[in-house]
User: Fold this.
Amino acid sequence: MKKIRKIAFLLAVICCVASVPCFGPLKVSAEGSKTYTLKYMEDRGEWRFQANYPWDEKGTPREMYYFYQEIKDGDTVVVTASPASLDLKIDKKLSNLTIENTYTLAIVSAPEIEECYVLKNSIAAINGNVKNAYVYDNARCTFNDNVEELQIIETSSLMKANVTMGGTVGKASLQDENNRTLFKYYSFAPASFVVEDGNLKTPASKYSMKDESEAPAPSLKEQKKELASVMVNGRLPESVYKYEYYKSTYSDLQKAFGDDEESYLNHFIQFGLKEGRSGSETFNAEAYRNRYSDLNATFGNDWAAYVVHYINFGIAEKRNAAP
Assistant:
């Protein structure tokens, strides 16, 4: 499976945060930009800020008036855990916005946001176009404008996100605690995207199952022709694909295909392989590709080739293709 994109803000340099399992390798904010941390001061009854992360309890919290005077295009804003709601209006473009365990509603408005992270236990409403959005675990978030790419990441089966959109979504995916991609869809119509408790509620007519910006994918006939050498009686070996596993793992397909066994197989071959879906407990083409650079260099986006290689060579070579 593809790794979660690296978080690009100063939060990265703090070792204790870097150890949290929901994050990958971290990096510092862009050179010349600043990271501002906002926190509600209960003793003062108001929000204050510091130009650093994490919050320095021994440091001096400054009045928000100065935050609005100092912030510039390309800066990072981190909103920390708070018992009070926030309505933050910024007229600058942000390189990163992170909502961190807010518990109460944080409303943030900015013209554009490059990277937006809504972490677990957070409640947020984001106004402004977002390039890349990441929503973790049980976070609840509404994006009121357009999002180019949304990733919902679950690190526990007990925590499910709730996400809605007021605008369009170019690409949306959900990854579970086992790094399985449960869905990956494209071109969501305005105000149609809804995920409730980790389940996609958007009608299928409101999104596309394929990325229209990509080069045309091989047809089902072409894919089956490439897989012919490893198929027996029109079926793939169970080391790669199991009907019951594929059906039970992906509830969105159950709605579309019911108990039509052939449709599930065809979907796996034509769409599931490149969407990062697992065909069995032991095979995920995307994970296989990402795990072995020699295969990636040889096969590239030829997803059927990974299936053929795993069956003919990978199993014997004890290569790991599990999700």
